[in-house]
């Protein structure tokens, strides 16, 4: 490992200084960093709303904030976290940075569209922040009609426009990824030699392309109905509120797979690198990403079980929702089989990977409880649901994001963060997370409803535990912020391959040069060969 | 790069077919053919769309990838329509329950 | 951070640098592509992927149409009769002609026709597109005049006022979104026409024309479905 502080060679970070060289960049690596900065800002904004929610829920009464304000808090928490953090996070930061390198290309297929997608994201974010600052939205992130279209007095249209705009950022990113993977792979890089990170992002991009436009038109219709009093979703005006839910969830269910698939791609990489072993069942894991993406489009009605959907439709959606668990299970089994008898190291990225595997499994299994029609009637709109999706979204997606950020940090920045602090933070986050959301399964099953500022007194002890956990979790999130920032100037420089891992990204310098590869690589075998290969000989 | 160059006559032929289809669909609308009205209307529209996609948009001579991409858009529409209408069409199918 | 175990040396990834070939750059080749062919393939694939998003975007409106027509078939039928079938049919024909001229514009660029020919076909396309929008404007004006614009001033004399208002909400949403796409299309055509005038396109490089053509044909296809669904519902009950 290179620990010298010698003057660095020309790389994408020092290739041009000044605001203009960053704000007008076409380099996918710089755009990834632009996203990193803005996504982190939104994460802490969403986290602030979460903190307020948990503070209010310390006591059964609505004493910290008014119920109306509480409604705005959980709405803004959801909107910011879903649309401005979770959906872009891994694809926009790690995907943008790594995808071209992993396929052996100089950049994505459409670099200027990539930059445009960031500006669109920021513009949408500004609209949403404006909605938050000028009174907030209180409909829930799900914007159900007719409350959102007619009865709410909050900034629905402003927030809706923000989400509409940001949707295009997602669409353009997905478009870029799909074309890049199809048309820009290096010579010899066949589909089945691609890293699983790439497969995961390709599948994610399919969802972005096919799903996002539907929520775009839906949110537009809500705004139109609200502004012009047309009867599209409001029954008082002759509309159908269940149609809104169908259209909304047609996107928003696959959206959760947009949030989790990239994290699964990260975990596949981490598990191989830190077990020094090829993934078990590469083909199965690759196809499972596609299966999740496709089947994920067929299950949205499980959000409408108690909404007024027909029983027959409920049955169909319930059965298909069981099936969508299968490819996820395939991944969990294959990651486990990869780790088994591998040479495991406990570096901080691997801690996040382990955390992911356990927590995602819990979250996923509780999803099966909810897919069971009869159970969902009892548990819908309770804290059980909240616990379920936070286990997959935080225990899953965010753990994957943090694991990936740690793993590729030396590549992105050329610096190695302090491992001791990283391990501490990972543990901190794990403990804080479970303390926050574990009790919520219990309290939800016992009947505590979601989206209420007050609750029945017998739930208080669990809520206090949950808030304590949230505090620990919050501290845990701050620690990496601090040492990552510190590492930029003060940590030892990292070499090209500090982990001894396999993959095209580890063959180029850290940080990489602007054009990634001095010469186009020609790939003659899978880019991840941890096992001794017959061609190369004994390791 | 040069893709497949089709003769101008092909474009004119497809154009003629599209105009005929339009005239046909207007004509058929004035006769009561029961459920056949909708079937014919949709069928003619889909044929016209297919002609535009295959010939004007060159999918006939494009890679299989292009074909798959174009088809997937329509398949996904069918998923949206199909599963949503499955709800609406089965309302009231299960007697003895609240729905 | 932990070093890799000292006894472990990762086998060299079998990557060999490809020989770098010096070749004359086409002036329109972007640096991250290897050659014009790759660039053209990426661009057309990119446009097709974008069109899939457009299919799903319009699809949401078609979904709403399906649900409401299923709910009030007679109401929709009655509402549809108030649309002028002749304007609708004329517009359909106009768009089909514009698709033809667009396809011929692409072909002209593809076969290195003189700039004048290319621009001619493109201007024809734009002319028909503008004619379409003109007729749409007339139709919209008629709706305003007859008080069948949904909202506080909506008046309906027929049997089914609520479904009629729903129908016209969808009518304005769907044809309005379509018209917006036409306007954007005219903007794109202007840019392409200017580039064509400057002799940019020939058989070596005509991708922007092709890609613009794909967009234009898509907008035509949307109308191919809009026309019968909006204008031709059960016309046999009300001749003309």
Offer a concise description of the structure:
The complex is a heterotrimer of chains A (539), B (99) and C (240). Chain A is an all-alpha fold and 539 residues long.
Report what the structure shows:
With about 550 residues, chain A is an all-alpha fold. Chain A has one domain (about 30-235, about 245-505): Up-down Bundle (Cytochrome C Oxidase, Chain A). Chain A has 16 helices and 1 strand. Chain B has 3 helices and no strands. In chain B, α1 (about 10-30) packs antiparallel against α2 (about 35-55). Chain B is flat, with a radius of gyration of 19 Å. Chain C has a domain at about 85-150 and about 165-230: Cytochrome c oxidase, subunit III, four-helix bundle (Four Helix Bundle (Hemerythrin (Met), subunit A)). Chain C is about 70% helix and about 0% strand. Chain C has helices at about 35-70, 75-80, 85-110, 115-145, 160-195, 205-230, and one strand at about 15. The radius of gyration of chain C is 25 Å and the shape is elongated. The relative contact order of chain C is 0.16. Mean pLDDT of chain C is about 90; it is low at about 1-20. Chains in contact: A-B, A-C, B-C. At the A-C interface, α7, α8, α9 and β1 of A face β1, α1 and α5 of C. β1 (about 520-525) of chain A pairs antiparallel with β1 of chain C, so a sheet runs across the interface.
């Amino acid at each position: 490992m290179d620990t010298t502080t010698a003057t660095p060679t020309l790389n994408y970070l020092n290739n041009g200084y000044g605001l203009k060289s960053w704000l007008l960049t076409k380099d996918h690596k710089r755009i990834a960093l632009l996203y990193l900065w803005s996504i982190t800002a939104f994460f802490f904004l969403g986290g602030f709303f979460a903190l307020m929610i948990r503070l209010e829920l310390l006591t059964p009464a609505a004493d910290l904030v008014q119920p109306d304000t509480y409604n705005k808090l959980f709405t803004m928490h959801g909107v910011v976290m879903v649309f401005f953090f979770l959906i872009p996070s891994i694809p926009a930061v790690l995907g943008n940075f790594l995808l071209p390198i992993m396929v052996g290309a100089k950049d994505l297929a459409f670099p200027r569209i990539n930059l445009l997608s960031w500006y669109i994201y920021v513009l949408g974010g500004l609209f949403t922040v404006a909605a938050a600052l000028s009174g907030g939205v209180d409909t829930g992130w799900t914007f159900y009609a007719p409350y959102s279209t007619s009865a709410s007095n909050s900034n629905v249209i402003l927030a809706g426009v923000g989400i509409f705009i940001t949707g295009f950022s997602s669409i353009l990113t997905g478009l870029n990824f799909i074309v890049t993977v199809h048309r820009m792979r290096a010579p010899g890089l066949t589909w089945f030699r691609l890293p699983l990170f790439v497969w995961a992002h390709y599948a994610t991009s399919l969802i972005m392309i096919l799903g996002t436009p539907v929520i775009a038109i839906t949110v537009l219709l809500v705004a139109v109905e609200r502004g012009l009093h047309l009867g599209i979703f409001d029954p008082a005006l002759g509309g159908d509120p269940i149609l809104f839910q169908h259209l909304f969830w047609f996107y928003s269910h696959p959206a959760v797979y947009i949030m989790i698939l990239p994290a699964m791609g990260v975990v596949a990489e981490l598990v191989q690198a830190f077990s020094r072993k090829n993934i078990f069942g590469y083909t199965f894991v690759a196809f499972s990403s596609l299966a999740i993406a496709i089947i994920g489009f067929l299950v949205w009605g499980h959000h409408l079980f108690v909404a007024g959907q027909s029983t027959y439709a409920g049955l169909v959606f319930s059965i298909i929702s069981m099936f969508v668990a299968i490819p996820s299970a395939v991944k969990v089994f294959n990651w486990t089989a990869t780790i088994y008898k591998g040479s495991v190291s406990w570096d901080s990225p691997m801690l996040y990977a382990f955390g992911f595997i356990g927590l995602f499994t819990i979250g996923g299994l509780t999803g099966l409880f909810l897919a069971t029609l009869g159970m969902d009637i009892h548990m819908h709109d309770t804290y059980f649901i909240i616990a379920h999706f936070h286990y997959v979204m935080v225990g899953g997606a965010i753990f994957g994001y943090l694991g990936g950020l740690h793993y590729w940090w030396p590549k992105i920045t050329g610096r190695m963060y302090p491992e001791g602090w990283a391990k501490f933070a990972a543990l901190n986050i794990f403990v804080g997370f479970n303390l926050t959301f574990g009790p919520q399964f219990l309290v939800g099953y016992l009947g505590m409803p979601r989206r209420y500022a007050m609750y029945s007194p017998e739930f208080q002890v669990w809520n206090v535990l949950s808030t304590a956990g949230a505090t620990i979790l919050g501290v845990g999130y701050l620690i990496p912020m601090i040492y990552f920032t510190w590492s930029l100037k003060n940590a030892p420089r990292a070499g090209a391959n500090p982990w001894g891992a396999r993959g095209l990204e580890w063959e180029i310098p850290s940080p990489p040069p602007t054009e990634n590869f001095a010469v186009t690589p020609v790939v003659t075998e899978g880019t991840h060969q941890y096992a001794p290969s017959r061609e190369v000989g004994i390791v | 790069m040069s893709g497949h160059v089709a003769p101008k006559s092909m474009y004119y032929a497809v154009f003629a077919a599209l105009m005929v289809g339009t005239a046909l669909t207007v004509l058929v609308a004035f006769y009561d053919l029961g459920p056949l009205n909708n079937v014919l209307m949709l069928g003619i529209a889909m044929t016209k769309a297919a002609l535009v996609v295959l010939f004007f948009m060159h999918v006939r001579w494009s890679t299989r990838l292009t074909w798959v991409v174009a088809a997937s858009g329509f398949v996904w529409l069918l998923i949206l329509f199909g599963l949503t209408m499955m709800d609406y069409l089965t309302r009231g199918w299960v007697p003895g329950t609240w729905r | 951070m932990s070093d890799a175990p000292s006894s472990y040396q990762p086998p060299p990834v079998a990557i060999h640098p490809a020989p770098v070939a010096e070749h004359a750059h086409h002036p329109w080749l972007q640096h991250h592509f290897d050659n014009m062919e790759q660039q053209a393939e990426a661009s057309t694939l990119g446009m097709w992927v974008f069109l899939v998003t457009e299919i799903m975007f319009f699809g949401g409106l078609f979904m709403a149409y399906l649900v409401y027509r299923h709910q009030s078939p007679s109401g929709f039928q009655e509402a549809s009769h108030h649309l002028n079938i002749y304007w609708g049919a004329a517009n359909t024909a106009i768009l089909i002609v514009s698709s033809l001229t667009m396809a011929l514009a692409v072909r002209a660029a593809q076969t290195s026709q003189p700039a004048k020919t290319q621009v001619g076909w493109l201007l024809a396309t734009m002319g028909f597109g503008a004619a379409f929008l003109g007729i749409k404007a007339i139709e919209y004006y008629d709706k305003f005049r007859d008080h069948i614009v949904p909202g506080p001033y909506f008046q309906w004399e027929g049997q089914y006022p609520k479904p009629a208002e729903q129908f016209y909400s969808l009518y304005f949403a769907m044809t309005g979104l379509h018209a917006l796409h036409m306007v954007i299309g005219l903007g794109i055509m202007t840019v392409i026409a200017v580039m064509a005038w400057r002799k940019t396109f020939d058989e070596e490089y005509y991708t922007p024309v092709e890609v613009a053509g794909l967009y234009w044909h898509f907008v035509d296809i949307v109308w191919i479905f809009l026309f019968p669904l909006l204008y031709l519902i059960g016309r046999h009950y009300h001749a003309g």
